[in-house]
């Protein structure tokens, strides 16, 4: 994990507008004095910061680009920056005359950029007050102030809170070596581990972190340049956040290695966690085709009521429920319903998709991804008819495709039958 500064150029026209952020004060200590003070007859002043206004938390060594707004006709003599750490006396940290101020014609205000650097030796959670005094040529003064707490720059690592080695979840339930283009991989990440986002009422030794502005995903094919793939906005107010980010294997990665990178941004700071590269393979075919049947009814054979999709055979009623991936669960007139006695789940393929030849062309990767994307739609097959097509997740693991070939309903107590065929790895 590597932390770096993320400097961004600021358009000049934004300086004045941002200075209009007003009489800014952030409430990290209610006992600090009011944020604005007048002395003598003079002009006005405002305070803000670029690029996103004044913040409640800054990291040690961070440079805050202050913007002190004023009316140029009021003839400013100098600006003085004071700093108060905790309850110590204030100390002057900078004094400067108006130097290269910028003017925004739309806002009608002149703004003086003043860089303020957070002391590097302050402990986490320390409260700091900054006063900026504008002194005019006639001796009048205007004072603006803001307060902040010292917070840590962001941290980011792969893994879960409990396990730094539990990193990936392959959503198609295939092996790492079987991933292909279009597959979805979930990466576990921990942001600001063990951190808090605000000063607690009760004193705490937990680390106060800066807010995370965004968590951005990149991918790199081979040794190429990283490509931005997605972003999560405002994933953390500073508090610890364990989350899983899904990524899609890019189409251009076929036959090559792809590396996913995750970058957490907090103001001028950025930290990146890089996952291990994955070699992208050809799609895994559903090359094994089997046929089967299940029966139901008062006179149905006991050895054909349930079916084990892994074994490719019927199992007795007395067999363990964990082996019963499919059985005839009900008969109602001309309708026969199917279900599973274990954790095997089914997704009914839309008719139009089935009609387009999905059963013969879909790979295990495609079926596995389809099951993940339709996780809320997984259920027992229910009533079935010839031609119905199902994506199957067998016992929470491998994907299959099952097509109903024929249905013989039960009439006047006769045995009902459902014939099917299915494709497996």
TrEMBL record:
Keywords: Signal. Residues 1-27 form the signal peptide. This is DUF4397 domain-containing protein. It comes from Hymenobacter telluris.
């Amino acid at each position: 994990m590597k932390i770096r500064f993320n400097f961004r150029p600021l358009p000049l026209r934004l300086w004045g507008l941002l200075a209009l952020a007003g009489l800014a004060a952030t409430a990290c200590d209610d006992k600090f004095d009011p944020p604005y003070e007048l002395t003598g007859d003079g002009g006005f002043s405002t305070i803000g910061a670029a690029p996103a206004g004044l913040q409640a938390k800054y990291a040690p060594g961070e440079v805050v680009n202050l913007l002190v707004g004023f009316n140029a006709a009021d003839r400013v003599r100098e600006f003085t920056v004071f700093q108060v750490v905790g309850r110590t006396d204030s100390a002057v940290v900078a004094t400067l005359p108006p130097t290269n101020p910028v003017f925004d014609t739309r806002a009608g205000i002149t703004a003086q950029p003043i860089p303020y650097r957070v002391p590097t030796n302050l402990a986490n959670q320390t409260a700091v007050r900054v006063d900026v005094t504008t002194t005019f040529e006639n001796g009048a003064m205007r004072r603006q102030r803001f307060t902040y707490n010292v917070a840590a720059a962001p941290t980011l690592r792969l893994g879960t809170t409990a396990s730094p080695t539990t990193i990936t979840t392959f959503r198609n339930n295939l092996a790492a070596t079987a991933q292909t283009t279009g597959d979805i991989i979930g990466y576990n990440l921990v942001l600001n581990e063990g951190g808090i986002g605000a000063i607690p009422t009760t004193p705490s030794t937990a680390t106060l972190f800066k807010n995370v502005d965004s968590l951005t995903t990149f991918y790199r094919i081979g040794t190429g340049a990283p490509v931005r793939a997605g972003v999560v906005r405002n994933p953390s107010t500073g508090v610890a956040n364990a989350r899983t980010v899904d990524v899609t294997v890019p189409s251009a990665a076929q036959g090559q290695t792809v590396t996913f990178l995750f970058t957490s941004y907090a103001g001028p700071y950025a930290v990146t966690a890089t996952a291990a590269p994955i070699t992208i393979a050809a799609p895994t075919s559903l090359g094994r085709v089997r046929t089967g049947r299940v029966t139901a009814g008062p006179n149905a054979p006991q050895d054909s009521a349930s079916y084990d999709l892994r074994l490719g055979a019927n199992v007795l009623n007395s067999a363990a429920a964990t082996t019963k991936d499919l059985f005839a669960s009900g008969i109602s007139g001309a309708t026969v319903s199917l279900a599973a006695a274990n954790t095997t789940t089914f997704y009914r393929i839309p008719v139009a998709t089935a009609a387009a030849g999905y059963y013969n062309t879909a790979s295990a990767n495609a079926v596995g991804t389809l099951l993940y994307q339709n996780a809320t739609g997984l259920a027992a097959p229910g009533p079935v008819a010839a031609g119905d097509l199902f994506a199957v997740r067998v016992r929470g693991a491998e994907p299959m495709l099952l097509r109903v070939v024929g249905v013989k309903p039960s009439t006047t107590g006769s045995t009902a039958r459902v014939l099917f065929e299915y494709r497996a790895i």
